[in-house]
Amino acid sequence: MRNFDYKTVQLGELVVAVFDNAEQYSSDSKEVSRLAALAISRILRRAKMNSISPSQFTFFNNNERNNS
Fold it and tell me: Has residue 5 been placed in a domain?
């Protein structure tokens, strides 16, 4: 089982960190951009799959209002 250390960061900070990391794998700026874009898209796709959809969020908010 993997143990992940999740942390909330601003999107801009994530982009900078990913580009810095991609620069370690290539000195070609186009390749760095391609690697970074691929990594960011995968990160955001995983985050989207693991998040609560807006309809579920609305459902929870409506239940909280009805219970109070």
Answer: no
Non-local (6+) Cβ contacts of 60 within 8 A are 52
- Token code pair at residue 35: 């690697």
Report CA torsion sign: 19, 21, 23, 26. Answer: negative
Residue 2 belongs to a domain: no
Q: What is the total count of domains within the chain?
A: 1
In a domain, 62, yes or no: yes
Kindly state whether residue 59 falls inside one of the protein's structural domains: yes
Taking the whole predicted model, whether its pTM rises above 0.85 is answered as no
Read off the pLDDT of residues 23-45 as tens digits, 9 standing for 90 and up.
999 999 999 999 999 999 998 88
Query: CA-CA-CA-CA torsion for 65, 54, 49, 9, nearest 10 degrees?
Result: -80
